[in-house]
Amino acid sequence: MSTQPKTWGIVGGGVLGISLALRLARAGQKVTLIESADHLGGLADAWRLGDLTWDRHYHVTLLSDMWTRGLLRELDLEDQMEWVETKTGFFTDGKLYSLSNSLEFLKFPPLSLLGKLRLGGTIFYASKIGNGRRLEEISVESWLRRWSGKRAFEKLWLPLLRSKLGNSYTKTSALFIWATIARMYAARRSGLKKEMFGYVRGGYAPVMQRFTELLQREGVEILLNQSVRQVRAGAWRTSVVEMKDGNSRTFDNVVLTVPSPVISRLCPDLEIDEKKLFDGVEYQGIVCASVLMKKPLDRFYVTNITDSWVPFTGVIEMTALVDPKEVGGNHLVYLPKYIAPNDPMFERSDDEVREQFVSALERMYPNFRRDDVLAFQVSRVRQVFALPTINYSKRLPPMVTSIPGVFAVNSAHITDGTLNVNETIRLADEAFNTILLRRTKDDRSYEASTQGAAPSTLGAEANRVEVAQR
Ligand SMILES: Cc1cc2nc3c(=O)[nH]c(=O)nc-3n(C[C@H](O)[C@H](O)[C@H](O)COP(=O)(O)OP(=O)(O)OC[C@H]3O[C@@H](n4cnc5c(N)ncnc54)[C@H](O)[C@@H]3O)c2cc1C
């Protein structure tokens, strides 16, 4: 049996791509990571905001994020973590309320006592459901209406669903709300019933810096500024990766970690039914403004918003968690707006977004002055997370594609959780252990092991058989 290391091309240098690259390199494989940006990190990267280097999107770690914490330990950064008890705000009917404990919840005016009891009961009931898979069959709207009632649904749940999912909430399953509640409950359980959030001093920039150094030490070749244009089958069971600049590289195996419709576009050799599965995954995108200010807005890390006139989905006051000294003694706020990938808002300039968002802050916070804004910058990403539509996992694209040696592992394969770094690293581990590890071995042993293999927990092998049979 041959023991020659295989060559692997990983497309995408986000958390998933770099986690897979590390595992494959440690399994003795020759790995090349291909990233279109000039740095690694993807959605979890850092950028310059005025004089500050901080995360392009707000990121926290929960005490229950064991995979993320394991990675930080490995990068020797766990002792650089700060854990802080945070507060939550709620902006509704033009007023800002604190909603950080049970007493405040009981005093919360927009709902009657019965409405609050039903709402609290819904959250408690959802937290007790161990496996939310069966909730995939029912729409989030019917499920929440059933358990929380009409008033709580319309007054609270609906604006919250709309703010994250837009009109796509109508096709989203109840698994979405279960996964969101499960994550928050896990955080509270391990955080002595308090909402403890953590961050690494310096944000994700030092994390990505250390990760890059670790990959280099493990012998991973990192190609930056290389946008992949096409992946196709080559001679002798190899795969050819063509870049936009005309260069191409040949590998024994390729793993694509980019969004599903992009995988469909990059791989013209996929079978028609398989292509349909990749194209069928619907995504939600984001326009997310980072605002550096001289003064704080308020005391809440997250402020949920139900008023539809507010042009952003929520207010994330990072410096309610992060020590302002970390950001030059100033205050950092994120204003995210989740939208569909084809929303015209993607075409708005930074100045237009700034005017709209800053005007809304003036209406919401009487003490806010636009002169306090030191820097304002907008991130736009059209495909952030796959919408958990009804019976989503039954239409999941395969991880093992019909092109020999080409694998598709991306965040659309997170079927029981929300999009976060912890779930992403967990997915990398599962995909490596259940699918990729076998491929690091001799071809014959790989084929023998996939014949009659029990479907993996991720359903990928099962999907592959299904696609091949059609
Ligand atoms: C607003 C926001 C807030 C978040 N908050 C949190 C949080 O508080 N806590 C938490 O744990 N997680 C959070 N997350 C989620 C976290 O960022 C993601 O789970 C994680 O970064 C996903 O990594 P990925 O590798 O799957 O995807 P990505 O980061 O999208 O990586 C894909 C990579 O592929 C590259 N690429 C695309 N096309 C090509 C091509 N043709 N050729 C080469 N390269 C290509 C991209 O440039 C990118 O680097 C948040 C995300 C967002 C957007």
Describe the structure.
The protein has 470 residues and is of the alpha/beta class. It has three domains: 7-36 and 226-281 and 392-469, FAD/NAD(P)-binding domain (3-Layer(bba) Sandwich), CATH 3.50.50; 43-85 and 196-204 and 283-386, Alpha-Beta Complex (Polyamine Oxidase, Chain A, domain 2), CATH 3.90.660.20; 101-190, no CATH class. Helices cover 35% and strands 23% of the residues. The chain has 14 helices and 20 strands. The protein has a seven-stranded mixed β-sheet with strand order 8-7-16-17-18-15-19. Strands 10-2-1-14-20 form a five-stranded parallel β-sheet, with helices on one face. Helix 1 (15-26) runs parallel beside helix 12 (421-439) and helix 2 crosses helix 12 (421-439). The two termini are 33 Å apart. Mean pLDDT is 89; it is low at 444-470.
User: Major sheet, described briefly?
Assistant: 7 strands, mixed
Give the domain tally. 3
The averaged pLDDT comes out at 89
Task: Please count the helical segments.
Answer: 14
User: How many β strands by DSSP?
Assistant: 20
Major beta sheet, strand line-up: 8-7-16-17-18-15-19
Unreliably modeled segments: 444-470
Overall outline: globular
Give the N-to-C terminal Cα separation. 33 Å
